[in-house]
């Protein structure tokens, strides 16, 4: 007789008694255990404003920064994504966001970052140089930066600054998502054509993971961009 015979009534009885409860226990633990909670953008809170890299929160965990030309719609995009119209200050006046603003999320050490816009004509040359330097320090040295969201007005895409940011991401192998925003300002056909133009211009850019038609007003592209941000912040 083999040393273990599964047909043996005693073995069957033992399995009947012992096999099920542990399996259920494992399933329960998968549901209720320490599995990290999904990111909830609605829980975003203002954390801190930083004028320079040394004022930023500790460089741990993961964060995604929103960059783009002044007035492109970065702060509005953040407010749309977090479903909180008052989170990041928006303005008709370009140059509203002058500091690096950090927003914390429900998951510890995950952040969204609103960067100062580039190309605001009314500030002095010295101030511009200053910003550019702080921005470049942030982009170069920030280790928790998991991806960059480049916000471009769909009617005026790929400015020199946008192209510089794309090249910078490519050079540093940083995942890039482009939100072509204010799509509500164009007819759908025009917006589609604009998207095709952007895609064509960036067809060789490896770091460009997502190009999304977006509107903070009509919420076009909202769920798609939230999914990308969640994946980046969770390290998927
Ligand atoms: N119609 C429309 N207007 C938008 C959209 N997104 C932003 N705006 C408007 O564009 C203007 C600038 O938006 P902001 O979000 O403040 O732009 P920003 O890129 O943060 O600007 P800075 O902080 O100056 O760099 C505001 O008047 C917004 O209401 C959009 O999707 N559709
Ligand atoms: Mg802003």
TrEMBL record:
<dbReference type="InterPro" id="IPR006073">
    <property type="entry name" value="GTP-bd"/>
</dbReference>
<dbReference type="Pfam" id="PF01926">
    <property type="entry name" value="MMR_HSR1"/>
</dbReference>
<keyword id="KW-0460">Magnesium</keyword>
<keyword id="KW-0132">Cell division</keyword>
<comment type="similarity">
    <text>Belongs to the TRAFAC class TrmE-Era-EngA-EngB-Septin-like GTPase superfamily. EngB GTPase family.</text>
</comment>
<dbReference type="InterPro" id="IPR019987">
    <property type="entry name" value="GTP-bd_ribosome_bio_YsxC"/>
</dbReference>
<dbReference type="GO" id="GO:0005525">
    <property type="term" value="F:GTP binding"/>
</dbReference>
<feature type="domain" description="EngB-type G">
    <location>
        <begin position="60"/>
        <end position="235"/>
    </location>
</feature>
<protein>
    <recommendedName>
        <fullName>Probable GTP-binding protein EngB</fullName>
    </recommendedName>
</protein>
<dbReference type="InterPro" id="IPR027417">
    <property type="entry name" value="P-loop_NTPase"/>
</dbReference>
<keyword id="KW-0547">Nucleotide-binding</keyword>
<dbReference type="GO" id="GO:0046872">
    <property type="term" value="F:metal ion binding"/>
</dbReference>
<keyword id="KW-0479">Metal-binding</keyword>
<comment type="function">
    <text>Necessary for normal cell division and for the maintenance of normal septation.</text>
</comment>
<dbReference type="GO" id="GO:0000917">
    <property type="term" value="P:division septum assembly"/>
</dbReference>
<keyword id="KW-0342">GTP-binding</keyword>
<keyword id="KW-0131">Cell cycle</keyword>
<dbReference type="InterPro" id="IPR030393">
    <property type="entry name" value="G_ENGB_dom"/>
</dbReference>
<dbReference type="GO" id="GO:0005829">
    <property type="term" value="C:cytosol"/>
</dbReference>
<keyword id="KW-0717">Septation</keyword>
